Amino acid sequence: MAKNEVAAKPASKAKKDKKGPGLKERISKFFRTYISELKKITWPTGKQVLNNTIITIVAVLIVGLFIWLFDFGLQYLREWIFNQF
Questions:
Q1: Exposure string (b/e) for 28-45, b if CB count within 10 Å is 16 or more?
Q2: Domain limits of the chain?
Q3: Cα angle vertex 24, ends 22, 27, to 5°?
Q4: Is the pTM of this model over 0.70?
Q5: CA angle 76, 79, 80 (to 5 degrees)
Q6: Pick from 36, 53, 32, 33: nearest CA to 44
Q7: Chain segment 19-31, per-residue pLDDT in tens
């Protein structure tokens, strides 16, 4: 039994000695990784941004028109039904 206890103590002491990187190292690693990821980004050109903006505005207008027409139709239908009874 004494042999097992002796063998267990150095293993637990080794765990205590193995600390992870300190705060400064972790912050430094974070910013190095952050900068390297920023370099991988491909930014759109001004023409692409303008084109996507126009497409978005047109799509919003079409959906808005569809919702307005649907609402107008349901309102007309409701008034017609209530006037019948």
A1: eeeeeeeeeeeeeeeeee
A2: 43-85
A3: 110
A4: no
A5: 85
A6: 53
A7: 788 999 999 999 9
